[in-house]
Amino acid sequence: MKKTLLTIVSLLVVALSFGQNTNWKIDQSHANVTFEIDHMVITTVTGSFKEFSGVIMADKPDFSDASVKFTIQAASINTDTEKRDDHLRSADFFDVAKYPTIEFVGKSMTKVSGNKYKLKGDLSMHGVTKSVELDVKYNGTIKDPWGNTRAGFKVSGSLNRTDYGLTYNTVMEAGGLVVGENVDIQVNLELIKQ
Questions:
Q1: Cα separation of 162 and 154, whole Å?
Q2: Which of these, 71, 78, 47, 87, lies nearest to 125 by C-alpha position?
Q3: What is the domain count for the chain?
Q4: pTM value?
Q5: pLDDT along the chain (194 residues), means of 10
Q6: Fewer C-beta neighbours within 10 Å, C or N terminus of the chain?
């Protein structure tokens, strides 16, 4: 009986350990979320979101088993122009009073070659959820001077804002749109192993 109980306990411990992942915390002082969008066809406006958080879980050293959930506070948008930022927060664009967050939930992280990956998942913004595919560059893992294990990533992709109901625009007299529809996104992450 004692041997049977020991076997059951051992199997339970092994089974539970397979379901646990290593948590990687975002180092907020070494991470950013930026975007670029065309303005009046001839220039580009750059901006960022200042408030974001994420849960990244991975056991494999190459992060190919990574589980990713990322949340951005839409009201933290910053293009260095207060009037424009207020307009972007309004119902014309993000409508942050109604849709306070932008969320990404990863579905798979697939190694393409070397340090390049494809991250597939669902992006929810402005009440709309769409599947997206992002390019990921894994910059490596190091041990910092304080004994922490850190990993670095650059994530990039593009989306059409109108797919998410962000349709506000004005047509210029000479043709073309005041605000571009395609948005280029870049996320730089430095993670600390917990």
A1: 25
A2: 71
A3: 1
A4: 0.83
A5: 45 41 94 89 87 94 92 97 95 95 96 95 97 97 96 96 82 69 93 96
A6: N
